[in-house]
Amino acid sequence: MKKVSLSDISKELGVSKTLVSFVMNGRAKEKRINDEVAKKVLAKAKELGYKADYLARAMRTGKSQTIGLVMADISNPFFSKLARSIENEIAKFGYNVIFGSSDEDHIKSGKLIEVFKDKKVDGLIICPTVGDKNHIKKLNKEKYPYVLVDRYFKEIPSNNVMVDNYGGSFEIVDNQIKSGRKKIAFINFNVELINMMDRFHGYLEALKVNGYELDNTLVKNVSFKDIEKETYEAMEELLNVNPKIDSIYFANNRLAFLGIKYLIENNINDLKKLQLSSFDGFDFMPLMQMHISYGIQPIEQLGISAVDSIMKQINNKEESSKHAMLPMDLSLIN
Fold this sequence. Notes:
By secondary structure, the protein is α/β, with parallel strands linked by helices. The protein is built from 12 helices and 11 strands. Strand 6 (184-189), helix 9 and strand 7 form a beta-alpha-beta unit. Keywords: DNA-binding, Transcription, Transcription regulation. This is LacI family transcriptional regulator.
């Protein structure tokens, strides 16, 4: 069977081979090619079964047209949606994505980074773990294009894209207090991730500005490794030791899911007095019989911003150490 060429695509669409080449090499925006035209070229290439000779192109241009994506946990809807946003956006530049999950393990994260570099990816998009500082410092030393997403390290210069974790957390807890809640418990991860620390500090600030003092018995931290067991233990302790609790705030959707699961499995009857809130949620939450409010993270925009940053670096147009912070959608579900 004859191999499909760029000329075949150009003839089918009635456009120049040069235009097709620009699109397939991810230079459509650079050459100001209309988005609709670029989409038609990519669609026709897929229809005809065009397969680029990536090795030859990499040797010719010095670029592999691939990005390595390191996610913390691809099974979590937040990260899977983020990966999809990145995949969709990077395709507009004629790029492909290869990805892996670190499972919050810095050793696994480091191995993934090295594997991707061995595959000659043009850049990396990384959701770093707590122990990734040395990996990031090494990338800086090598001047390897990368962008950190969802998390970063304050002491290490980097291009990064974040959500306003502090502001979002403050607003969610402030909303709880203004609705009459006085004993707001908080379940968080016992880690040094900056996004989780910012959410805790937002919780503290909301208490402070509303005249409440921190009650350490209302704050529970769990680990990634034993998340279900420790979340259950935290819920049991909070509800048994602190019967006056009228609200529980979860630092992320996974903790919220486990907290709800605990309440259902243990037939907690007095749910009408207990308000639940989470920094972000799952699609099923509006269907719950219990009351829960949550913020909505701008996942699609996170992916778009991360791609914009990495592509600017690859094309030598990105300034170093650029920090982008995106606001939360705080139209809470009440």
